[in-house]
Amino acid sequence: MNRSDPAAIPYAQALIEIGRDEGLLDRIHEELGAIQGLIEESRDFRLFFLSPSIDPGHKHEIIAGLLGDRLCRTVLGFLDVLFRKKREPLF
Fold first, then answer.
1. Are 49 and 39 in contact (CB under 8 A)?
2. What span, in angstroms and rounded, lies between the C-alpha atoms of 5 and 63?
3. In the structure, what pLDDT confidence band is assigned to residue 71 with cuts at 50, 70 and 90?
């Protein structure tokens, strides 16, 4: 999460709480790290991920199609919330 933006804190806290409840903190951390790696390494992925002009539902469908078999339901749901709220830059 973007630690420099105070708006990121409630999102991070909610994800941590859900991760603890589900016993998935390590997995969530790994999966978010992998997504961060894609954002840093792939200009195309970064532009797609951060684009405000792509419909949030379409963005979620693409992410689920590309990475759904490697991401837990919690991370997919978290990304969906970020997309719907147009909060991708917080990532």
1. yes
2. 24
3. very high
Mean pLDDT of 41-46: 96
User: Measured between alpha carbons, how far is residue 5 from residues 21, 23, 35, 77, 78 in Å?
Assistant: 25, 27, 19, 21, 17
Handedness of CA 64, 81, 38, 24 (dihedral sign): negative
The answer to whether 71 touches 31, Cβ cutoff 8 Å, is: yes
Joined together, the tokens standing for residue 22 give 């589900």
